[in-house]
Model the fold of this input.
Amino acid sequence: MTCARLQITRAGPHCTIQDGGRAGFLRWGIPASGPMDRKALAIANAALGNPPGAAGIEVGPGGLDLELAGAPLTLAVAGGGFLVQVDGSPRPAWAVLRLDPGQRLTIRPGPWGSWACVAVGGRILAPGWLGSLATHGPSGLGGGRLAAGSVVEVAGHDPAPGPDRAIPCPVWARPRRRLMAVAGPQDRFFAPEALAALAGQPFRLTAAWDRMGLRLSGPPLPPQGALGVPSEPVLRGSVQVSGDGVATVLLADHQTTGGYPKIATLLADDVDGLVQNRPGDAVTFALVPPQAAVQTARLRAAVLAAFLPRLSPATRR
Amino acid sequence: MTGDDLPRLRPVADHALLVDLASVRDEAAAARVRALDAALAADPAPGQVEVVPALVNLLIDFDPCVADHATVAAHVRGLLSAPPVAPPPPVVHAVPFCPDPPFAPDLEEVARRTGLSPGGVIAALTAAEYRVTMFGFAPGYAYLAGTPAAIALDRKPAPRRDVPAGSVIVAGAQALITALTMPTGWWVLGRSPFALTTGDPARPYVLAVGDVVRFHRIPAAAMPGGAA
Done:
């Protein structure tokens, strides 16, 4: 059978192959990785009838261009509000697209958002690592980093993809400016004024970011007497504060242990809502009790679980 | 328990619980962490996704659609009040390493700063016994506790770039065998041909928390590719 080949002709930073993530390896120093916006991959996959965590291409803030070779292929794009074109002809930012060999898909920075996911109507052939195609950005282990010249092979394809169509973009998939977090686990090293500043004042995303973390600018949050604390486990979403009071939010490729105090930890879904913002954007933090955080997680999971089946080609036909 | 308010169970975000078992890192703290880690492996908490052992605490990541902090905390309190589960016996690893050029670019400087000869630095390193206390920094990086005080130095002022995988590095009371080629601010004292990875997703690295490591010197001729 002929494979479809996605020939990458231009890739901004941090374009990678990602699946739903490599959970279960934190004790070995390995973060789950996976897409920066996990809902984007799940939505793009659902639009093709794929499982939510099937491997696709995550496109970073600079966008990505590709040309298809080999066999025809159906793709789905979701995530940020990028400018999507096929052979120069505009398409919706969230769309199911059929490409024939020789056609070019361009995904360029658009009016909003920083990350998009491209799901494929088939199976990405890539080496993988520890049973997952998620790419650990700093090492490149996993499905792999993408750059101009990379080729992504896709086996199999949807025999009846249906016409090109837009995918509805719900408001909860947009960049999130008000982020929910639970205080701690090292809030005891901060004065009440610092916690009040975290919860009451805006912080801006800086240009200092990668797939491991995102530095914020805002009121200083000086830790008190925390620098001798033994390193402990950290998570995607940990808001760690360095000795000079600057906060960094840990992201998909985070280190798994660290010694900086964590003043708060974002809810998992709010980490993804955060990274769809752009440098200079302002966000605020709402500190919520742990039980309210769990209830919010359950509500959001139920909303996503109800949304995804409505996108599937089987439902639509 | 160790007095004050330990163990201390702290909620983390919407999907994790951090269990503090000690305030100070020592062998007793590490033993308590290993015992609770073993208990959670034998009898997982509701919704448990994974457990991350560290120096004085461990973290339990859970599925918030299945469990919440209170149900996981109740499970942990039950395990802590039950007779302790014996952790798996530590494996002792004999790790060969070569401190000859070009594998040990910082050996001379460590010797200068500690007042030892280069041979004295290596003798101190190889005389000690190290314990795997946790993983972190990067995939497969096992922190080894036990670097002797005679060669314990603060990190270097500036990191060295592209330190090859397999390098034996030290800083403070800790040592590491690097698993990837990456920059490091630790002191590079040699290179090891020791295979860190297993290829088995169920246990991707040879070293595990609690294991014991001893280093022994090998000549450059015994390194892969011979004398480089």
The CA atoms of residues 181 and 266 of chain A lie 4 Å apart. Residues 290-311 of chain A form the longest helix (22 residues). The helical segments of chain A are 38-47, 192-200, 268-275, 290-311, 313-316. Chain A has a mean pLDDT of 95.
